[in-house]
Amino acid sequence: MEIPFTDAHTHHLPAKGNILSCTDLSRSSLSDFPADKIFPVSFGIHPAETETGKWESLCEKIRRYPDFAAVGECGMDRNIPIDMEKQKMLFLRQCSLAADLGKPVIIHCVKAWDILYGCAKRFPAKKRRWLIHSFRGDIALAKDLLRHNFTLSLAPQMILHAPGRAEKFQSCPFLLETDDSKENITILHQKMAAYCKMNVERLKEKTYHLFHEFFYIPEK
Questions:
Q1: pTM here?
Q2: Cα gap 196→168, rounded to integer Å
Q3: How many domains is the chain built from?
């Protein structure tokens, strides 16, 4: 089997081609959810929806689709005008739900690393599977997050527009994603492979294995 390109977090339905992605369908209603779903999906309440997101809706999606891949995206964002304590409590509630269900968490974190580290201490590090999605921080922060058992998924913007920063990740494990952009995951792999001085097929293999390890999806 040819190893596919992996997209750790996207808001688009799976692209055509040899691509394995985890699609965030948090904002999709149950009525427009694909009836023949055969791809990994995530459900969560974004921090921007802290005061409007419905917990009952999230739970209903999880009940209807118990084989979903992850909780999220959820997290904390200091750039939005919503009380941080409210964001934190909703985030912790979703992390507890994920822990009870044995699911990983996809995290949106903006300028709230101190709070995130504090939240992480409430959960056993060895059992935590928390993904920092759309990571665009520096290598020092990346290494500290990795030391604390977080998984990183690099932002497409960093790969495309900050090659000097992106190439510093060549010694770190990472996933790649398209998020809500229209970028092509194959192009992102090609560019990161060049930055890492690595064959594209080798990078595909590395991200593929990390994708499966993080989401606990059996490899074919």
A1: 0.94
A2: 8
A3: 1
Find the CATH number of the domain harbouring 170. Answer: 3.20.20.140
How far is Cα 165 from Cα 18, in angstroms, rounded to an integer? 28
Among positive and negative, which fits the CA dihedral 220, 3, 33, 177? positive
Q: Is 6 contained in some domain? A: no
Cβ atoms 33, 25 nearer than 8 A: yes
- Which tokens is 65 given? 């689709």
pLDDT of residue 122: 96
The two three-digit tokens of residue 111, written as one number = 């300028």
Q: Is residue 32 part of a domain?
A: no
Segments forming the whole domain that contains residue 180: 37-215
The pLDDT of residue 17 is 86
Mean pLDDT, consecutive 10-residue segments, the chain of 220 residues?
A: 93 88 86 68 96 92 91 98 98 97 97 98 94 96 96 96 90 96 96 95 96 81
ω before 85 within 30° of 0 (cis)?
A: no
